[in-house]
């Protein structure tokens, strides 16, 4: 995509793009739906104001995130097309996911049928296994970061806190993400395996898909810390097959018992929803990340947006 933007950030952007409606906003910028005029292709453009953003974020984090994303290509990952810096702003041009996000869908429609939950979750795990095989951790997996394309397939948004891990054994001490999706060691401010932190977050997502609610109460940190130490209790009003429960129990468990993303692809329940044929993007078994309680009940409503750490 050829690209040049004027710094007044008007709706008509010279040399290539026409901004349409705003899709969302964050602390430092806004995301717009836009059209590449020459090709009539729709894209999303994240506009980050240098005036509003912290200097450290612009100097270190943003450039690091862009470098991490440059070489990543997966059918269930939002594609980065181009990043442009001008005197006043950064512009991140990326693939548009036109059907909203999974959080909106669950809030509007309630719990997903098992077939849909399995379809979306298998796509999430496929992409997560791909990222982990390339030593990239997401660090902010949550329902609102699972976007949907025209055919309602999952596209993971990773334009927030991705990180490339230098060695597989390295523990992380950066505490980021969202309370409701954070693994126990993050909430306890202890060093943690970032790969297994991602798979914990995937477990919270799977519960929310199947039950229409969060597995843990994120409105009170002390209560949350107590709940995550114990295995989840499955509600009687939403019967789930045992092989599905087994997946959740191997996600929301101590890190020493938690499976890697690739290992979850081999479980009976997840494998039922995988596309037929070879999974060419997956790492080999030797490349897979290594793996390292009062009962909590499901029932907390999904928030409009997750509270960040």
TrEMBL record:
Gene Ontology biological process terms in this record: intracellular signal transduction; microtubule cytoskeleton organization
Keyword field contains Transferase: yes
Domain Protein kinase residue range list: 17-270
Domain of life: Eukaryota
Reaction catalysis annotation: L-seryl-[protein] + ATP = O-phospho-L-seryl-[protein] + ADP + H(+); L-threonyl-[protein] + ATP = O-phospho-L-threonyl-[protein] + ADP + H(+)
InterPro entries, alphabetized: Kinase-like_dom_sf, Prot_kinase_dom, Ser/Thr_kinase_AS
Region (Disordered): 278-309
Classification via SMART domains: S_TKc
EC number: 2.7.11.1
Keyword ATP-binding among UniProt keywords: yes
Annotated Pfam families: Pkinase
Keyword line: ATP-binding, Kinase, Nucleotide-binding, Serine/threonine-protein kinase, Transferase
PROSITE patterns in the cross-refs: PROTEIN_KINASE_DOM, PROTEIN_KINASE_ST
UniProt-recorded Gene Ontology molecular function terms: ATP binding; tau-protein kinase activity
PANTHER family: MAP/MICROTUBULE AFFINITY-REGULATING KINASE, SERINE_THREONINE-PROTEIN KINASE MARK2
Name of the molecule in the record: non-specific serine/threonine protein kinase
Species in which this protein is naturally found: Apteryx owenii
């Amino acid at each position: 995509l050829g690209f040049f933007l004027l710094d007044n950030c008007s709706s008509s952007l010279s040399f290539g793009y026409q901004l349409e409606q705003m899709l969302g906003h964050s602390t430092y910028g806004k995301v717009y739906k836009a059209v590449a005029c020459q090709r009539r292709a729709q894209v999303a453009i994240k506009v980050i104001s240098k005036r509003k953003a912290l200097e450290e974020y612009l100097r270190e984090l943003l450039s690091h995130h862009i470098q991490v994303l440059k070489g990543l290509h997966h059918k269930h990952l939002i594609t980065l097309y181009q990043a442009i810096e001008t005197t006043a702003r950064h512009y991140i041009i990326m693939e548009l996911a036109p059907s909203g996000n999974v959080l909106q869908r669950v809030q509007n429609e309630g719990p997903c049928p098992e077939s849909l939950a399995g379809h979306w979750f298998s796509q999430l795990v496929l992409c997560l296994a791909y990222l982990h095989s390339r030593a990239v951790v997401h660090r902010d997996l949550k329902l609102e970061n699972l976007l949907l394309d025209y055919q309602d397939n999952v596209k993971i948004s990773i334009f927030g806190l991705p990180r490339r891990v230098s060695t597989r054994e390295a523990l992380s001490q950066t505490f980021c993400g969202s309370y409701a999706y954070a693994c126990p060691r993050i909430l306890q401010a202890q060093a943690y395996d970032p790969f297994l932190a991602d798979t914990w977050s995937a477990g919270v997502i799977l519960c929310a898909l199947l039950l229409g609610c969060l597995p843990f109460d994120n409105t009170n940190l002390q209560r949350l810390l107590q709940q995550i130490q114990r295995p989840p209790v499955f509600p009687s009003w939403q019967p789930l097959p045992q092989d599905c429960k087994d997946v959740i129990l191997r996600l929301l468990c101590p890190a020493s018992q938690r499976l890697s993303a690739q290992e979850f692809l081999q479980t009976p329940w997840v494998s039922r929803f995988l596309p037929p044929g070879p999974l060419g993007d997956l790492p080999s078994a030797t490349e897979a990340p290594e793996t390292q309680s009062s009962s909590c009940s499901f029932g907390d409503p999904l928030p409009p947006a997750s509270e960040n750490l």
